[in-house]
């Protein structure tokens, strides 16, 4: 489980948090991100189209890692697995989700905002977490502080991160990737401007140097 989720974190420094409002847009949107250099896609279950989108994008883009985001129950976790999600991201933790994730086909990146939540996962063997909501939960300083007691834990911070601030997180030794919705601005997606989506992906990656 740990190795598999680590592979996801290593595959792309930027993880777009994608919400599908129009089911026909899932594949072209994700293709434009992949064309722009993004290798990991988090498709949220925030809209009714998330599960179908995961299925379609997996079939259409076999070179990308396609996972489910905003999973908040074991029932949703199962649905995401069945849709072919290659990983699952949750905004927070429950014991049931953490236990389910240990043996699931789709490895779990559990969301935590505090050390106590982290420790709930740590005792079950988790060593990688989403840090959410990153900016309001302490940002870069919090992640530096977590390094002291948990030097073997790595994070994917998400929540309030922008193109201009992503690099500050990626400089930390306990961060491999950062996530956010800035890669898929609502108005650009609504307009179906895939060339612009690709540009934002390329530009965000090249800003990292
Ligand atoms: C998430 O679920 O990870 C966040 O909604 C993404 O945060 P952002 O929209 O602030 O980038």
Automatic annotation (TrEMBL):
Does the record's keyword annotation contain Cytoplasm?
no
Keywords linked to the UniProt accession: Carbohydrate metabolism, Lyase, Schiff base
Enzyme Commission code(s) on record: 4.1.2.14
Q: Which GO terms describe its molecular function?
A: (R,S)-4-hydroxy-2-oxoglutarate aldolase activity; 2-dehydro-3-deoxy-phosphogluconate aldolase activity
Instruction: Please identify the protein, giving its name as recorded.
Output: 2-dehydro-3-deoxy-phosphogluconate aldolase
Under catalytic activity, the entry for this protein gives: 2-dehydro-3-deoxy-6-phospho-D-gluconate = D-glyceraldehyde 3-phosphate + pyruvate
Q: Which NCBIfam families match?
A: eda, PRK05718.1
**What organism is recorded for this protein?**
Marinobacter suaedae
Tell me the lineage of the source organism: Bacteria, Pseudomonadati, Pseudomonadota, Gammaproteobacteria, Pseudomonadales
């Amino acid at each position: 489980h740990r190795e598999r989720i680590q592979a996801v974190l290593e595959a792309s420094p930027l993880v777009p948090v994608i919400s599908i409002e129009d089911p026909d847009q899932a594949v072209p949107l994700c293709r434009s991100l992949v064309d722009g250099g993004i290798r990991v896609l988090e498709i949220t279950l925030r809209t009714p189209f998330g599960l179908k989108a995961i299925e379609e994008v997996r079939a259409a883009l076999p070179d990308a890692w396609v996972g489910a985001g905003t999973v908040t129950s074991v029932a949703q976790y199962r649905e995401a697995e069945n849709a072919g999600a290659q990983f699952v991201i949750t905004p927070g933790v429950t014991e049931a989700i953490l236990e389910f994730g240990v043996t699931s086909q789709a490895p779990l990146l559990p969301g935590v905002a505090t050390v106590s939540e982290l420790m709930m996962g740590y005792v079950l063997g988790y060593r990688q977490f989403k840090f959410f909501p990153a900016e309001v939960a302490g940002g870069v300083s919090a992640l530096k502080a977590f390094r002291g007691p948990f030097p073997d834990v790595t994070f994917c911070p998400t929540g309030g991160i922008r193109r201009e601030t992503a690099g500050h997180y990626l400089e930390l030794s306990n961060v491999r990737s950062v996530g956010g919705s800035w890669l898929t601005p609502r108005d650009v997606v609504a307009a179906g401007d895939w060339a612009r989506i690709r540009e934002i992906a390329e530009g965000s990656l090249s800003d990292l140097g």
